[in-house]
């Protein structure tokens, strides 16, 4: 069952600006970073009792182990299994409650329906047995007056309930009846005339229109309604009676079919009917003879056929489930890896003892086996991925521990005074070369030992820069300006003159260190300014070179720099370089070099075009010369037909010579 609180809670959930969730009580106005007990689920209580805790940072939640200090973004395996078990129990409980509620509702509906059916049957029985009207339908039936003066139907002696007032009653039909009495009279007439459900309204009118009871109800529409009601009642009674009879006959008929051994899931009614008609023993069966006709027999046969078909399907489903369980057990005992081929697995299966000794297992569909094989491959791959991921996480965690151990080693050296702002790697290598923490960090994918060492030294540099900044601010407060030209002696005298005690007031940093750091800062600023000016100068030179392309008249490759310089200074781009002749000359030389390269490229292109044109003309002349030579050879050689004639004559002369010899 769910562990959610049954009563509405006064706690509401909110989120702080840093993304962390907290809870606020509307009644007590109290706030808590921890989830209140009344809001916790079974899983929350289980987490509280475990070694794991859940925390949220920047809208991201992670799990941490309270004892090992291990953290992970994914829910731990033991908590995942516990959560799945709790969810399964809650789902089973909810399903059970829903099933019980549905069964209770169904039972109530059935009881209400049975009560309603019983009420209708009682009303119908009471209306059929009412003695108010008993009207006959025989020949010559009519109304008469009894000895007491009460109107009766002829031959019955039954008093007719009418609303007669004082005075004599004329023999014949009653002059006044109530609608209810007229309805009962018509219902009794329908019953005595044996009106069947297959009668039509027109046929019923033709049969009953001459009956006295027919005339008791003057409205034809009411007569039709009573007729429809009677037909419905009779039909329901016939169906109920037939249902009771068939319920009694059904088990006997099924037993007869089962004993005959002639009915299978594929048997047809025509086949069974022909077999039974030729078997006197079966035709004399009481269950066969108690059926009114073949329609009822076929209906019972169809029901039995569906029954055995359903049994066969259920047995096939059970057999399939048994085979799947056997196959699952076989796969669990077989070492299937990601490299296992389907052909190998299938061959091993068919040669296994489980397959050879189990004929039922041999009927399993190979598609199901293939699906289970694929599922096992997916599971094996997933397990391999999980192991790989876990190994990677463990490796990263181990590397982090090794880096932290080496950082601890460096901190020990800092505390012992062996590492300061002037320390080099070579100064401490002899102290740590035999320490196992140095060898453990070797080969790590993260920061190396040297990088961690320089990070430690950089911390000294950062601290020194902060101290130097504070010293400068102290001197500025005393109107003492400082620049890179102030040497160490002057700097020390300034500190002494203005009473600035560096060793005590500035974290025990020496005057020399502070002076060196300040000089480094000024040198870095000067270098940055120089580099910035150089970048700006290169940009202006490029702008000047681009502007030279649009001079009018344009520059020629033979122009001299001295002649062009006045024109360049008049350009907007040249106003920033008025005194920098070297910059003008650099831009001019680059432009001229590019101009000469373009002219050389154009000259080479023209030469290639001329060479290609000459080569094309030579090819055309060579082609024409070859064609003329071929034409001359054809004109000198005889025609092919003439060559054949000449050859034939030569052959004839040779044959004649042979004959003469």
Automatic annotation (TrEMBL):
Pfam families hit by this protein: FF, WW
Residue ranges of every copy of the FF domain listed in the record: 245-307, 399-459
Any one cellular-component term (Gene Ontology): U1 snRNP
Gene Ontology biological process terms in this record: mRNA cis splicing, via spliceosome
Domain WW: 5-38, 52-78
Residue ranges of coiled coil: none
An example molecular function term from Gene Ontology annotations: RNA binding
SUPFAM superfamilies associated with the record: FF domain, WW domain
Basic and acidic residues bias: start-end ranges: 96-125, 599-630, 638-652
Compositional bias ranges of the Low complexity kind: 142-152
PANTHER family: PRE-MRNA-PROCESSING PROTEIN PRP40, PRP40 PRE-MRNA PROCESSING FACTOR 40 HOMOLOG A (YEAST)
Designated name of the protein: Pre-mRNA-processing protein prp40
Organism per entry: Wallemia ichthyophaga
């Amino acid at each position: 069952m769910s562990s959610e609180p049954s009563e509405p809670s006064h706690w509401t959930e909110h989120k702080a600006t840093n993304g962390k969730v907290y809870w606020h009580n509307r009644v007590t106005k109290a706030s808590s970073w921890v989830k209140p007990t009344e809001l916790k689920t079974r899983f929350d209580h289980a987490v509280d009792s475990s070694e794991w805790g859940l925390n949220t940072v920047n809208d991201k939640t992670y799990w941490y182990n309270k004892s090992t200090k291990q953290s992970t973004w994914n829910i731990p395996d033991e908590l995942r299994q516990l959560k799945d078990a709790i969810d399964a129990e809650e789902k089973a409980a909810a399903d059970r409650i829903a099933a019980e509620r549905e069964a209770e509702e169904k039972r109530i509906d059935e009881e209400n329906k049975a009560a309603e059916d019983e009420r209708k049957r009682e009303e119908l029985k009471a209306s059929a047995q009412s003695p108010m009207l008993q009207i006959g339908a025989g020949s010559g039936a009519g109304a008469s007056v009894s000895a007491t003066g009460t109107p009766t139907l002829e031959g019955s002696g039954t008093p007719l309930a009418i609303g007669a007032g004082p005075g004599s009653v004329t023999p014949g039909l009653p002059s006044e009846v109530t609608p209810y009495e007229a309805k009962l009279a018509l219902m009794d007439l329908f019953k005595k005339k044996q009106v069947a459900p297959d009668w039509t309204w027109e046929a019923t009118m033709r049969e009953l229109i001459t009956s006295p009871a027919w005339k008791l109800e003057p409205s034809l529409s009411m007569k039709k309604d009573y007729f429809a009601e009677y037909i419905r009642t009779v039909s329901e009674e016939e169906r109920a009676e037939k249902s009771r009879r068939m319920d009694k006959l059904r088990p006997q008929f099924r037993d007869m079919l089962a004993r005959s051994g002639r009915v299978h899931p594929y048997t047809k009614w025509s086949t069974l009917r022909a077999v039974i008609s030729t078997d006197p023993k079966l035709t004399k069966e009481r269950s066969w003879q108690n059926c009114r006709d073949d329609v009822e027999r076929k209906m019972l046969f169809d029901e039995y056929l569906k029954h055995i078909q359903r049994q066969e399907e259920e047995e096939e489903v059970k057999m399939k489930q048994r085979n799947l369980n056997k196959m699952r057990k076989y796969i669990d005992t077989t070492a299937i890896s990601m490299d296992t081929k389907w052909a190998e697995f299938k061959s091993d299966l068919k040669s296994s003892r489980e397959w050879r000794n189990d004929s039922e297992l041999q009927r399993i569909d190979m598609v199901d086996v293939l699906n289970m094989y694929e599922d096992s491959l997916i599971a094996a791959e997933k397990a391999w991925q999980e192991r790989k991921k876990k190994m990677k996480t463990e490796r990263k965690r181990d590397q982090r521990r090794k880096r932290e151990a080496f950082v601890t080693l460096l901190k020990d050296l800092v505390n012992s005074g062996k590492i300061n702002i002037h320390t080099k790697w070579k100064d401490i290598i002899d102290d740590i070369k035999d320490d196992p923490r140095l060898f453990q960090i070797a080969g790590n994918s993260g920061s190396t030992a040297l990088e961690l060492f320089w990070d430690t030294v950089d911390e000294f540099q950062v601290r020194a820069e902060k101290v130097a900044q504070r010293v400068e601010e102290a001197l500025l407060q005393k109107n003492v300006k400082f620049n890179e030209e102030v040497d160490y002696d002057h700097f020390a005298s300034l500190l002494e003159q203005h009473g600035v005690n560096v060793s005590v007031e500035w974290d025990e940093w020496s005057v020399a260190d502070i002076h060196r750091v300040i000089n480094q800062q000024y040198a870095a600023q000067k270098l940055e300014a120089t580099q910035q000016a150089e970048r700006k100068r290169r940009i202006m030179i490029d702008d000047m070179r681009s502007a030279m392309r649009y001079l009018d008249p344009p520059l020629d490759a033979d122009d001299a720099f001295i002649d062009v310089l006045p024109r360049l200074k008049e350009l907007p781009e040249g106003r920033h370089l008025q005194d920098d002749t070297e910059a003008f000359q650099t831009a001019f030389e680059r432009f001229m070099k590019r101009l000469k390269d373009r002219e050389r490229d154009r000259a080479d292109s023209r030469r290639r075009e001329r060479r290609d044109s000459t080569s094309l003309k030579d090819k055309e002349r060579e082609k024409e010369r070859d064609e003329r030579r071929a034409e001359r050879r054809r004109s000198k050689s005889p025609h092919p037909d003439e060559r054949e004639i000449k050859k034939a004559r030569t052959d004839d002369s040779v044959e004649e010579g042979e004959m003469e010899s």
